[in-house]
Amino acid sequence: MNVEKLKQMAEEKFSILGKVEGLEVFGNGHINDTYLVVCRMEDGMSRRYILQHMNGEIFKNIQGLMENIVNVTAFLKKKIIAVGGDPMRETLTIIPTRDGRNYLENEDGSSFRMLAFIEDTFCLDAVRNTQDFYNSAVAFGNFQYSLSDYPAETLCETIPNFHNTVSRLADFKKAVEEDVCGRRKIVEKEIQFILDREADCHVICDAIASGEIPLRVTHNDTKLNNIMIDNRTGKGICVIDLDTVMPGSALYDYGDSIRFGASTGAEDEQNLDLVSCDMELFEAYTKGFLEGCRGSLTKTEIQMLPMGAKVITLEQGMRFLTDYLQNDVYYKIQRENHNLDRARTQLKLVADMEEKWDQMMAVIGRL
Fold this sequence. Notes:
The strands form three sheets. Strands 1, 2, 3, 4, 5 and 6 form a six-stranded antiparallel sheet that branches. A three-stranded antiparallel sheet has the order 7-9-10. It has 13 helices and eleven strands. β1 (about 20-25) and β2 form a beta hairpin. The chain is of the alpha+beta class.
């Protein structure tokens, strides 16, 4: 859909204020197409919105996804108002369509939603310093705290088995067995590394199933760029990108942040000597996450935080290697063996965590 048609759709179909005068591609998300919409009010002031084309290939149940977001943000707004916060800045605000729906479904099957733009904020794509990482941890911890009494079981799974590591392991074994493009012989060492840690793949899933740790509302994509940071204070004020909000474990959110943010190398680093778990960043994030959670985690969850980091890193390495074995059908690649490089980076990070396990547990003990 071209820009003019998008502008017309935004103005005619959504309950926005003012007349659309500008629309441009916004951000660098990999799943949805996102646009910044600028409207001019009658008094000459401008108001901005975010328009998103939701990816129906990734998210098969758009209605369930949007119900999750609407219900979770409504719940958060009540919490924010109760403590004197600003609900328009501290959580997402869905702009309804003119006929009262929470998203627009066009005749061609495409789905769009509109969000209020959160002014006077910015987001980061990479950790600039330890304080950034700490601030992001507080924000994601606060997200956990604020939703600790939300009935997680009522949420739909927007991507079924997303962090079901047991299911991911089964997919991996199937890819190894089928070896559709003859790559297995290249990665026998990596395959064995994962199989040697099969028991680890069961730890979190089994703990949830047995009730050892509680089922919680989880974000499932806890990267730094999913937090809006206040221009004035430099603190994270709003967790965004709620498409993958669904039932899970707090260990998933904590673990993915450590996997991505505490690594000394890029996610696809080819020089594995550069890849390790930075213990200063690990401690800063753990401190901030626990502070943000404000006592809402159980003792068992806290003790299992390092396991969350290890399992999610192992899971992601397994997913990259599965895709490599299946001829790179899921993750976009920019070079030959890109998914193999990604997998090796994750597995090196797992190995480094294992070497530093006593240090990681000591951090938990101190905090």
